[in-house]
Design brief:
With about 270 residues, the protein is mainly beta. It has one domain: Acyl-CoA thioesterase, double hotdog domain (Porin, Beta Barrel). Strands 7-8-12-13-14-11-3-6-5-4-2-1-9 form a 13-stranded mixed β-sheet. The chain has a two-stranded antiparallel ribbon with strand order 10-15. The chain is about 10% helix and about 40% strand. It is built from four helices and 15 strands. A hairpin with a 4-residue loop joins strand 4 and strand 5. This is Thioesterase-like superfamily protein. InterPro entries: ACOT8-like_C (IPR049450), Acyl-CoA_hotdog (IPR042171), HotDog_dom_sf (IPR029069), TesB_ACOT8-like_N (IPR049449). It holds the Pfam family 4HBT_3C.
């Protein structure tokens, strides 16, 4: 099976941290520049490291906060994961991606104790139409790069610039010769939210890359389809944001936010 990344090596350090060395494949190529990785699979590979670090059966990840330091270089890179705050009921862990001697992404995740709360369950976010009821949507194809070519997308009929529902899936594994969990596979698609309801296309003369990705999960996602109910908003002074409700085929499971830097392109 094709994959976004190949694992080259890994090592555990005396302080308990772990460094994994990877190489990105063409499917991880970004949309803004051919020599960068797309933030979506980069999020997925970081989540794979966060998920496995000092694994505990009584905890799961409830929030992931990723800050993008600059261009995510294509090719070989490392991810070092460490414990920031250990605890009985909550833990804070961090993964740092580096390439060419520079930090690309720093991600922090809160791991939270799990317990049975079915008796008080309550959700306000509404379900969206199931992907199998929607037509294949080619609206992402105006974006270049290997990552965009690796995904299948379907959209609701109300989809428009600035707002809409898009479902995404991929046949690729996150790591070569390894089975991806549903959590890793779907986290590796979330960053596409910024490109599914664009108020401007790349050919319109404006760029709007995100500087971060914040993901909050009230339950772990299941299945191979990620539904994104997205709203994109541009402010008047060069800053925008993309806000999304995240769905799997069973319903909503969380939300994401991205802050955008709006930049005029030289044409």
């Amino acid at each position: 099976m094709s994959a976004y990344y190949s694992l080259l090596n890994s090592e555990q350090h005396a302080d308990g941290s772990v460094t994994a060395y990877y190489r990105s494949n063409i499917h991880a190529q970004g949309a803004w520049n051919p020599h960068e990785q797309h933030m979506a699979p980069a999020t997925g590979i970081i989540c794979a490291e966060l998920e496995q670090f000092q694994l505990r059966n009584d905890m799961r990840i409830g929030r992931i906060s990723l800050d993008i330091f600059g261009l995510i270089a294509f090719g070989e890179f490392s991810i070092t994961t460490r414990m920031i705050r250990a605890g009985k009921t909550i833990e804070l862990i961090e993964s740092e991606m580096q390439a060419n001697g520079k930090t690309c992404i720093v991600a922090r995740a809160w791991k939270m104790m799990t317990q049975d709360t079915k008796a008080i369950e309550g959700l306000e976010d509404q379900r969206v139409e199931h992907p199998e009821n929607l037509a294949i949507w080619e609206g992402m194809k105006h974006w270049p790069g290997g990552f965009i070519q690796s995904i299948e997308t379907r959209a609701n009929t109300e989809h428009r610039a600035g707002k809409g529902v898009v479902w995404l899936t991929t046949p690729l594994a996150m790591i070569e010769k390894r089975q991806s969990t549903d959590f890793v596979a779907l986290m590796g698609l979330v960053d596409t939210a910024n490109g599914i309801v664009p108020r401007q296309k790349p050919t319109d003369g404006w760029a709007f890359p995100n500087l971060d990705l914040q993901i909050h999960l009230h339950r772990l996602p299941q299945g191979k389809w990620l539904g994104i109910d997205a709203i994109q908003q541009f402010g008047t002074d060069g800053i925008g944001m993309t806000s999304s409700i995240l769905h799997d085929v069973h319903g909503p499971f969380g939300r994401s936010e991205q802050i955008l830097t709006l930049r005029k392109l030289a044409i």
